[in-house]
Design brief:
Blueprint: H1 3-10, H2 28-48, H3 55-60, H4 62-86, H5 93-156, H6 161-176, H7 181-190, H8 203-206, H9 214-220, H10 223-231, H11 237-248, H12 269-283, H13 295-303, H14 312-325, H15 335-352, H16 355-367, H17 372-392, H18 398-420, E1 429-435, H19 442-453, E2 457-464, H20 466-476, E3 480-484, H21 491-504, E4 510-513, E5 529-530, H22 537-553
Parallel strand pairs: 1-2, 1-3, 3-4, 4-5
Helix pairs in contact: 2-4, 4-5, 6-7, 6-12, 6-14, 7-11, 10-11, 11-12, 15-16, 15-17, 16-18, 17-18, 17-19, 18-19, 20-21
Length: 554
Amino acid sequence: MSGATQVGFRGPSRHGAGRQHPSTGASASERAARSKDELHRRVAAEEAALPEVPSQVEATSPSGRSRLRSAPWAAVAIVAGLGAIVAGAWFLVAAGVVVSACAAAALGWSLGEYRRMTLYEQIEGSSSELKRALSELEIAQAETVRRLSMAVEFRDEGTGAHIERIGRFSTLLAEQIGMDQEFCERLTHAAPLHDVGKVAIPDSILLKPGPLTAEERAIVETHAEEGYRLVRGSSSSILDLAATIALSHQEKWDGTGYPRGLAGEAIPIEGRIVAVADVFDALTSDRVYRKAFSVDEAVQLMREQRGKHFDPVLLDAFMEVLGRSGPDARTPADPLVLTENTLETYAGAIERGDAEIAEGAIVTAVEDGISPTTLHGEVIAPALRRLDRLVEAGELDPDHKRLATGITRRVLATLYRYMLGATEATRERVLLAGMVGDDHTLGLQMVHDQLAAAGYRTIFETELAAEHLSAAIEGQSPDLIILGATAPASADQIELALQQLRTRHPEIPVVLGGIAVGGEIPRERGGMRVLERIDESVEAVEELLAAPAATASM
């Protein structure tokens, strides 16, 4: 609609508000002016009743465009009729009145329809915003569920690997039997909470290395009811599904399961699905009371329970899933691409201060087969270096860096649990010394974690002044020393520490963690090993410790 047309329709009347009957003897021009004023008032009243609509809706709505395009033609029709009256062409007066009435009716219908479409579009927009908000809420709930299930699993598994596999296997099995997409998506997040009731089981029973007594077994079996009570009654569709799974995943097809002895299709389908996935993963995983069965052994044991423990149709479908996906229920990904994607996700997360995304990226990478050693050297250390560059460039403030450092410590603690497993410290003693002046020792922490996972007996000392290094050596009697530094302020302490080591303990091999942890210690250090990559830590220590033995045997 042109600006002139808008003014013609929307502008206030320039004539008096009073109205005379045609029989008063007013001239044709006066009658025409009054008629025009009356029409202006009616149109203005109609439009005043309409809700305000953003200009972009007028421009983008197809129905709005078509109706607004018809408005100028209605104006032309009205003006034509009035023109006939003004010109005194009385034979056209009747036609003009008819045309004006039709045009006014068309305009009224157009405005009414436009108002209806505007209201419809406003409702549609509000519905879209509501759906988006609900979707975001469901995602947040799903992440909360995953964190809770990880906390439960850490008690008796040591890692969250079991719950991740249960979620994947359950989803693949549900897809295999044709369950709808919405159900499968909710199952992915709900299935890992199948054992949430274990929070109520004492560690003395849950972690017992030997067979359970009848009384202890009865206590363990309460975890199904306890889990149901923990998560039932929520407004979350995910938690509602999780409650049913927690209650029913220990039921058996033949009715001999617990807690309620349900049989056959009386057991909810989600419970039957998770039962299959849970038993397979339990059989193929190490437990405190036994070693893992091989995949073939597990498959044979489960086939023997077809129609007894397991729904026969679901078990057959699971075997098809297993043959296609393998025992980890995942499609192998390109390790290089996965590592690069993890770096981008992790670095962005710590820069934003998003701990959940950062930890989730690392856990997912481990579950997808990337070794913790690789994550140290190819993801976490580069992300920290990038963080330092942003701070130096003034693009990130020190408070953000401190937050990122705290997040990384938390992530390293989670990753360490994956790495350590059941490793026993039986190898040589290694002292890792972080010198005074360092703003963080995360690089040295990663070196420590790798050595500890390799079985070395590690001693980790931070904020250690050079003059106290000798006392630490005397007290710990290490077979090798690793000195780490990241901040320029610690350079003097490193120099002094090296002088003391050459003078007092020339027999102890030394590794310098300079470049590996972002410092500026030069390569040439009188034959001392300088780590250039964190993931070379174990190799460097092994080589240095083997060198004296090789020399002695010559």
